[in-house]
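Table S5 (text form). Sequence records supplied for joint modeling of the four-component complex.
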Amino acid sequence: MTATIKDVAKLAGVSISTVSRVINKSKPVSSEVKAKVLEAIDELGYKPNAVARSLVTRRSNLIGVIVTDIGNSYIAQKVRGIEEIGRMYNYDIILSNSYGDPNTEKKFAELLRSKQVEGIILISEIPNREVIEYVEDFKIPFVYLNKYYANPGLPSVSIDHREASYRMTNYLMELGHRDILYLTSYEGEEASLENYKIEGYKKAIANGTEMERRIYPAQGFKVEDGYAIGDEVANFIREDGITAIFCCQDELAIGLINYCYDNGIKVPEDVSICGYGDTKIASIYRPGLTTIKEPYYDMGAVAIRRIVKKLEGGKLERTTTYLPIRVIKRESCKAKDKQLD
Amino acid sequence: MTATIKDVAKLAGVSISTVSRVINKSKPVSSEVKAKVLEAIDELGYKPNAVARSLVTRRSNLIGVIVTDIGNSYIAQKVRGIEEIGRMYNYDIILSNSYGDPNTEKKFAELLRSKQVEGIILISEIPNREVIEYVEDFKIPFVYLNKYYANPGLPSVSIDHREASYRMTNYLMELGHRDILYLTSYEGEEASLENYKIEGYKKAIANGTEMERRIYPAQGFKVEDGYAIGDEVANFIREDGITAIFCCQDELAIGLINYCYDNGIKVPEDVSICGYGDTKIASIYRPGLTTIKEPYYDMGAVAIRRIVKKLEGGKLERTTTYLPIRVIKRESCKAKDKQLD
DNA sequence: ACATCTTTTATAGTTGCTGTCACACTATCC
DNA sequence: GGATAGTGTGACAGCAACTATAAAAGATGT
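The corresponding structure-token record, covering 682 residues in total, follows.
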């Protein structure tokens, strides 16, 4: 029932093409005619039908985004980056929640293609070869966003976790700590990520004089896992003189701090503890958790920029863009000499 | 470059309409012909062009969602509900981040309309009359989702905050508390929400024998505001025998508990403190925060269901659907006689 | 064998918009 | 003054699908 270009043309007493020209400024139109057309547009409240337009121009101005779970705060941040930057270039985004299932991802990719999206961003924990090949086969710009892996040989955006944990370990060393325990958690697909982080830790330790590597695995990386590993960690503190603990996840660190709180070990007075991720709790918790902030918003922003660049005629190289992290210094880590051990 | 229905028809040696019939099962086709067509579709990897289809059918299978900020965890939860349920009915969602600006909301609504979305869900803090009228004028199903207000006289989904705080206050009373302080925070638009919550608190108190209302305002509802109000609250505890504090927001409660932690007041031994919202910190914090859980996912789910129902020929009434809350019992509140006061 | 009814196919017309082409008109040049 | 160039406008053919209608083919009955 809404007005079409035809109605506008009739009301303004001109041809359809002229109206189109006024709307798109695609060719010059005399000012009197233009005025008439604009008036008609205004009167009818006409708005071009984007569907019809995209059928003929073959441009949808739509970017498909497939995520594992928009309910995850860090994914929502990435999506926010995508949305905000995409908007600047006049792209809308269509969102799909795959819950990490490869078949769902494929199905959604297909759906997005049928909707004629101009690009696809896939955010998943684990790069699934089959899904990726399937999507790349569409021959539309495609960027893969992951948290966990190094360059998977395709256009992607990630974080250099080796560098991240190297810098955090260095920070602890700058605080005077010589006995630093790295609390890791091997679990399924996460292992690969952990390997990078452990490498960074080792590299930093290797630079220190007379420092020993101490890597210990928790059963998982949730709050309860951190609490559960407390007894063992307490032993390390007593027996081995550990003064700082680098946890591979914020939640793990929080759980461990909870344990300490319940067992009379003061943080950071007795031991410095840091996390990884800068989840919201990190800033709210007492003591504030020293941690690594991953640039989620920026990851989304860079992903969409790479797609837009390609759509505007640029190149989309099969490389990974690594974004820098930041060590967020809070109260849970203290200079060693200020600890009362 | 992708195959069209024409290519399929040619390869299968039939007409375009026959192919369309096979795809849409709109009219019977002999099984031999059907087999030929399906084979051709498979061979060409043909997928119908949704844009062309929606131009002629006038159905886009798209729902527009305008949110203030997808980066907010509770909004992301709502969106997750919308996406997941929408998906079940074969709707995709287009996401727009307004950051709460009414003009941006209007602009996005317009954009969505031009994209021929079949329905719009608006999630905002404050219902803006102008925006709402503008969107309703589109004559497509529209549902408003808000956190803060009672029935705004249009199709919406919300929470009965009066009931919520009534139930929380009752819970505290069941624990034996007679001197319960409600820590509110008047601030701009939030005030209206607070009024409902305060009403619920008052209603519960009125049911108690010899109980006094005690309502005190903080300067805001962030962690730092909770900490800042600590001195005054401590006074209430000492002077007025307050044994439980109902904070209007989780963050405020956490800030207050932080203050207590820093000032030798034990929670929940000396005082019970509860929050409102069940943000992630509530479960991770030590002590676990007793709080009210708002059904964000369900709100999104109900909103999209109402739209789908309308699109399937049902009615969309100008009423508010109120979703039930839950009191989440954790360690920050304890029975009064077990407190050592 | 012819008429009638049913099933299947082909044709043409839509959807709303863009882009190419052609035409009419004006301005400029030798 | 006629050729040349430049401008503004309209007609029309797509874009890729769906749909109504008409036509053809096949089945049934007398």
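Note: The longest strand of chain B covers residues 62-67.
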